[in-house]
Design a protein that fits this description.
Arginine biosynthesis bifunctional protein ArgJ; Ubiquitin-like (UB roll); Arg_biosynth_ArgJ; globular; acyltransferase; about 400 residues; 2 domains
Length: about 400
């Protein structure tokens, strides 16, 4: 039986579907619109927690607070409070004090210890949070949370900035004969690039799992999912992927030695991969999701570099937007990736249409290619015939709307 058959997608599931979790959101005045801008996920028990963060040198204050909470709390959390509309990044000592104040206020509102609370922010960089509004909003959060789909909906709305759609996914599987649920919610649309991106993502599960195993799994999974997407080549200051495991499913504690570990890791990867793809598809101004599969590289790591170079190429992205089967831009990206490539053995396909074979042009139907490139999802396949390494990356086309959105993001 294949690993993927050991879990099932639960389309009705949300971030609150795993046992023990509630969520909610509300509008406290951080955004100019009336959309929610403050949210929270709460667990009824101390949940095993793990996180990964942006690699940007300039890291926002909430990341420091969350790191401290996870370390000081024995890798366990009860809640994460999130605001959108303001990144609380590059805000100095005052911004750091405000992030700690958010943690303190959320802990008081829900009757938790301060180190049981994580903090995340997203939005405009370089502006101080209006803390009177934040405090007022946090005071109202306990009355806004629920374990229903409505609570999850309000949370998803609260973390969005330029996102056009909410991003969530849920799967279920059996561990020790017990039903285990894994669910995720994310935001991200612009400033998206491998090695984390301007994104916040939250994964909840009711599985019992060793803290070290969860952190290792999160890191490994991030490398092949969230670190393989790009929208515009920019890595932000606030990126965070946080996961919490309540353990309320009642299974024996998961670790790599557990008989059901492979099924759990496959399900966990599916959640992260689908969230990552949703972020790429919802790239600012995007009209198409682009998937690049590279095979035949000398190593998986080499394939990943090449795939990310192709998906990050402004020329490739522009050609996709224009429905132009310009394979020359793809081969040029392969050649400048800095990885071992045999210049005489590269094959390229657009969907099922072969456009290059053994690094030589192949006659193809331009009208057929045009029709394919006008579709919603574009697959670019590159076989290097140089080894067994393979990798997949996701991105989107580059459109006029991307410039329009970002030309006036702050104003």
């Amino acid at each position: 039986m294949g690993v993927v058959s050991l879990f099932r997608v639960a389309p009705e599931g949300t971030i609150t579907s795993p046992k023990g979790f509630q969520a909610g959101g509300l509008h406290c005045g951080l955004k100019k619109t009336s959309r929610n801008d403050l949210g929270v996920i709460v667990c009824e028990v101390p949940a095993v927690a793990a996180a990964v963060y942006t690699t940007n040198v300039f890291q926002a204050a909430p990341l420091k607070v969350t790191r401290e909470s996870i370390a000081s709390g024995g890798r366990r959390l009860r809640a994460v409070v999130v605001n959108s509309g303001n990144a609380n990044a590059c805000t100095g000592a005052q911004g750091e004090a405000d992030a700690y104040a958010m943690r303190q206020a959320a802990a008081a509102a829900f009757g938790l210890g301060e180190h049981e609370v994580a903090v995340a922010s997203t939005g405009v960089i370089g502006e101080l949070l209006p803390m009177d509004r934040v405090h007022g909003g946090i005071t109202g959060l306990p009355g806004a949370v629920s374990g229903s789909g409505e609570g999850a909906e309000q949370f998803c709305q609260a973390i969005m900035t330029t996102d056009l759609v909410k991003k969530e996914v849920c799967v279920k599987l059996a561990v020790d004969g017990r039903e285990v649920t894994i669910a995720g919610a994310a935001k991200g649309s612009g400033m998206i690039h491998p090695n984390m991106a301007t994104m916040l993502a939250f994964v909840t599960t009711d599985a019992a799992i060793e803290p070290q195993a969860l952190q290792a799994l999160l890191g490994d999974t991030t490398n092949v999912t969230f670190n393989m997407i790009t929208v515009d080549g920019d890595t932000s200051t606030n990126d965070m992927l946080l996961t919490m495991a309540s353990g309320l499913a009642g299974n024996e504690e998961l670790s790599p030695k557990h008989a059901d570990w492979d099924a759990f890791t496959a399900a966990f990867r599916h959640v992260c991969e689908r969230l990552a793809m949703s972020i790429a598809r919802d790239g600012e101004g995007a009209t198409r999701l682009v998937e690049v599969k590279v095979s035949g590289a000398v190593t998986d790591a080499s394939a990943a570099v090449i795939a990310k170079t192709i998906i990050g190429s402004s020329l490739v992205k522009s050609a996709v937007f224009g429905a132009d089967a310009n394979w020359g831009r793809i081969i040029a990206a392969v050649g400048r990736a800095g990885e071992p490539v045999n210049p005489d053995t590269v094959d390229i396909k657009l969907g099922d249409i072969v456009v290059l074979s053994a690094s030589r042009p192949v006659s193809f139907d331009e009208e057929e290619a045009l029709a394919y490139l006008k579709g919603d999802t574009i697959a670019i396949t590159v076989d290097l015939h140089n080894g067994n390494g393979q990798a997949t990356a996701w991105g989107c086309d580059l459109t006029y709307d991307y410039v329009r959105i970002n030309a006036a993001y702050r104003t």
